[in-house]
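Teaching assistant's notes for section 4

Start the section by putting this record on the projector. Ask students to predict, before seeing the second block, whether MDR family MFS transporter will look compact or extended. Collect guesses on the board.
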Amino acid sequence: MTSSDALRKQEQQPAGGPAEQAGPPARLSHREVVIVMSGLMLGMFLGALDQTVVSSALRTIADDLHGLTAQAWVTTAYLVTGTIATPLYGKLSDIHGRRPVYLVAILLFAAGSLLCGCAASIHQLAAFRALQGLGGGGLMSLAMTVIADITSPRERGRYQGWFMAVFAGSSIIGPVVGGVFAGSGMLLGITGWRWIFLVNVPLAAVALAVITRVLRRVPHQPVRHRLDYGGALALAVGVVPLLVIAEQGRSWGWASPAALALYATGAVGLAGFVLIERRMGEAALLPLRLFRVRSFRLGTLLHFIVGIGMFGAMTTLPLYLQLAQGMSPMAAGLAMLPTTVANVAVTLTVGRLIARTGRLKVHLVTGIGCFTAAMLVYATLSVDSPLWYVSIGMLFMGAGLGAAMQTMTTLAQSEVPRTDMGAATASVNFFRSNGGTVGAAAFLSILFSLAGSRIGERLSAAFRHPELRRLAEEPGNARTLSGVLRPNGGLNLEDSAFLHTLNPRLALPFLEGYVAAMRIVFLAGAAVTLLAFLVAALRVPNLKLSDE
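Reveal the predicted structure now:
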């Protein structure tokens, strides 16, 4: 059946309630679905890559723009606008159609990328990253929504698996590409790090051309709703302060006056959002009635919890590779290749199994269990752990996320009316993104809160040996330590570059202290993922997905 036949069949459906009016999914052929996916994957790659490509180059960028202390805002600005925009894209695409809204997302992303490449200060870069985030917020969630539009719940995992593979691949490619550009000096007369953003422009142009063509194949039945501007504003007031404090709380202090003010503002905004959504009913930005659907409720909860562990691990593990194993950002990205290989292999396998059997719970529980096992492996790492042992944890993590992420999305979508598919899929991404923010902030906060005391204990023990005290008094080592050891006995751990110049025997207590703190971080992550495992095992029903 061609897409036009599917559309005619859809238009002949009898009128009924909201779910019936939408009709069954447009049944495109496998070839047509693959053509549509080619455009969606390119757009998704743009958004996913930009979440990781900046991380390895951020220190170089901040030094060049003389904004080292403000560098966190470059990440925070993209995260905040992308998170807030995600549910808006879902509702807009339900009303106006996927294709025009997706094209707007690509244009905003490309414009933000071009401006980022021209930024003259760290604050300009943060502002332009905010614009870029407005586009990036729609690239991934809309791709998932379109696949949900044109496939049955049972088929969905087969195709969504490719998206998960793109996401996993970008997490490895991103730090490598960022490291290459940041270390390139000048390319074609332009500072190397600026190409991190400028290269998005031609890629976006290709994505724009492909999406313009292939999404014509996707029929759309418009949903006649008002746009919930009040809900969008209240959500911004509620979420933005909490995201900012999650990113900045460690430096400001979690109980500082600024933090307390943001907590209060966020609480008022979220309370207002719930009241507005209840009043808006069918036109709500995030319809509260969706949370009465058990599968949607459980899917979003699991995305939030697993998001905490996933982003926390993705933030902490590269630090271990760079600090304890002495790798460069580029080498650390390449060392995480086992995660990508396992993720892609399991994602594609699980997608086919779900399409064949219609069962997803077994894969969901097994996936989260594997991810929990990965956290426990990481919690036993030491300074001199061989790379093969670290890779065992990476294989567990890649396989676990490959099995869990697509099944959580399919679970959340499985019982949602098709008229709400855009809002529902955007909500899934919204909760995962917020979980990721909480995870990254919490893991780093625990790490640096504990690292100082752990390093101090090991330094005190090391300096009891006269040989090490004499080594510390040598001019080169003494000069390096003077920038780290504060007169009041505290430690300045804002920059780890001193570890490259310090004598290895003196650097060892620092490395052991860092790794000891990381073990506690990974144990906390294991506790979080164990909670997700219990929810999946005890609360998720053993659904058999529909083939319609």
